[in-house]
Design brief:
Elements (H helix, E strand, L loop, with lengths): L6 H29 L7 E8 L2 E6 L4 E4 L1 E3 L4 E3 L3 E3 L4 E8 L4 E5 L4 E5 L5 E6 L9 E6 L11 E6 L1
Parallel strand pairs: 1-7, 6-12
Antiparallel strand pairs: 1-2, 2-3, 4-5, 7-10, 8-9, 8-11, 11-12
This protein binds copper (II) ion.
The site of copper (II) ion has 7 residues, from loops.
C-alpha cells in the first residue's frame, strides 16, 4: 500500500533540498573566487620550498633570498616576503625536494609546494597593516627533521 505524502513531508523535503543546493552554489562560487588570480597583481614572488627553508625569488629585480630561521630568537635572516599594505601578491609556489606547504596562518593563505609543479595563488595584504608588521610564514606539511623551523616572515614595507 502506497502512502501519500503529506504537505508537511513535501515541505520539509523541499526545504532541505533548497538548503543543500544553496550551500553547494555558495561554496562553488567561493572556491572559484579563492582560486581566481588577479589580472595585474602588485607583485609576483616565486616561493621555493627546500629542506628546510623558504626561498623567495623576485622576478621584478631578479633577486633570490634564502631565509634562515633561528628558533632561539624566533627571528629570520637572509630575506623575507616583502609586500606593501593593501597590495595583491601572486605567489608561484614549488619545491625542489619533498612536498612542503606554504602557510601564512594570519592571512588564511595555504598552498602546497610540490616538486615538479607550480601552484599559483594570490592574496591581499591587509590595507590597515602598519609598515614593519610581520606575519609568520610556516611550512605546514611535515617534511623531515627540521620541518618545525621551516619558517619565514611576510614583512610589510
Ligand atoms: Cu617543509
Amino acid at each position: 500500500m502506497v502512502k501519500r505524502l503529506t504537505k508537511l513531508e513535501i515541505a520539509w523535503t523541499l526545504a532541505v533540498v533548497g538548503l543543500i543546493a544553496g550551500v553547494a552554489v555558495y561554496s562553488t562560487v567561493l572556491l572559484y573566487n579563492i582560486d581566481a588570480l588577479p589580472a595585474s597583481p602588485g607583485e609576483y614572488v616565486d616561493v621555493i620550498g627546500h629542506q628546510w627553508y623558504w626561498e623567495f625569488y623576485y622576478p621584478a629585480n631578479n633577486t633570490y633570498w634564502n631565509v634562515s630561521y633561528d628558533a632561539n630568537t624566533l627571528s629570520a635572516t637572509g630575506g623575507a616576503l616583502w609586500a606593501h599594505p593593501g597590495e595583491q601578491v601572486q605567489i608561484n609556489v614549488t619545491s625542489v625536494d619533498v612536498v612542503h606547504s606554504f602557510n601564512i596562518p594570519a592571512l588564511g593563505v595555504r598552498i602546497d609546494a610540490i616538486p615538479g609543479r607550480t601552484n599559483l595563488f594570490a592574496f591581499t595584504v591587509p590595507g590597515a597593516a602598519a609598515v614593519g608588521t610581520q606575519y609568520l610564514i610556516q611550512c605546514t606539511e611535515f617534511c623531515g627533521e627540521f620541518h618545525g623551523t621551516m619558517r619565514a616572515f611576510l614583512v610589510v614595507v
